[in-house]
């Protein structure tokens, strides 16, 4: 399973960015799709995830500013990030969990996309 991310970049504080991640390859059923981030010297943390039925979960630090959504027909998950703060600066990584055509579990990570918020 391959994950291709896009949408990162440099933005001023208060600005917005939209990340996208598309899954391809041998994945038959996608359950949870999510976004994590890792800043230099810090542990990777969950930003938001969304289940197959649309139930969402957000980190307290982004709740109310970020919105996660998915397009099941396109195997794509989005992260709309508004009111960005310098502390949101990190590499953002997409994660997808599910099963392949042989019903083997799949847990794949994207390569990461850099988000930098200037003050």
How are the SSEs placed, and which strands pair?
Layout lengths: L1 E5 L2 E4 L4 E8 L4 E10 L6 E6 L5 E3 L7 E6 L4 E6 L8 E10 L5 E5 L3 E6 L1
Parallel strand pairs: 2-11
Antiparallel strand pairs: 1-3, 3-8, 4-5, 4-9, 5-6, 7-8, 9-10, 9-11
Fraction of residues in helix = under 10%
Radius of gyration computed on alpha carbons: 14 Å
**What is the N-to-C succession of helices and strands?**
EEEEEEEEEEE
Percentage of residues in strands: over 45%
Helix count from the secondary structure assignment: 0
Termini separation: 37 Å
Low-confidence stretches: none
Count the strands?
11
| Shape designation | elongated
User: What structural class do you assign from the helix and strand content?
Assistant: mainly beta
In round numbers, the mean pLDDT is: 97
Largest β sheet strand count, sense and barrel closure: 7 strands, mixed
List its salient traits.
single chain, 119 residues, seven-stranded mixed sheet, 0% helix, elongated
Brief digest:
The chain has 119 residues and is mostly beta strands.
Please explain how this structure is put together.
This protein is mostly beta strands and 119 residues long. The chain has no helices and eleven strands. It has strands spanning 2-6, 9-12, 17-24, 29-38, 45-50, 56-58, 66-71, 76-81, 90-99, 105-109, 113-118. Strands 2, 4, 5, 6, 9, 10 and 11 form a seven-stranded mixed sheet that branches. A four-stranded antiparallel sheet has the order 1-3-8-7, with no helix packed on it. A hairpin with a 5-residue loop joins β5 (45-50) and β6. The chain is elongated, with a radius of gyration of 14 Å. It starts with a strand and ends with a strand.
């Amino acid at each position: 399973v391959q994950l291709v991310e896009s949408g990162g970049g440099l933005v001023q504080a208060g600005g917005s960015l939209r990340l996208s991640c598309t899954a391809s390859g041998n994945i038959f059923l996608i359950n949870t799709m999510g976004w994590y981030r890792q800043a230099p010297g810090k542990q990777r943390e969950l930003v938001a995830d969304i289940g197959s039925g649309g139930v969402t979960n957000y980190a307290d630090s982004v709740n109310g500013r970020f919105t996660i959504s998915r397009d099941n027909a396109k195997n794509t998950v989005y992260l709309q990030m508004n009111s960005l703060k310098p502390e949101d600066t990190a590499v953002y990584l997409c994660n997808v969990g599910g099963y392949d055509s042989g019903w083997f579990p799949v847990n794949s990570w994207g390569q990461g996309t850099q988000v930098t918020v200037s003050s």
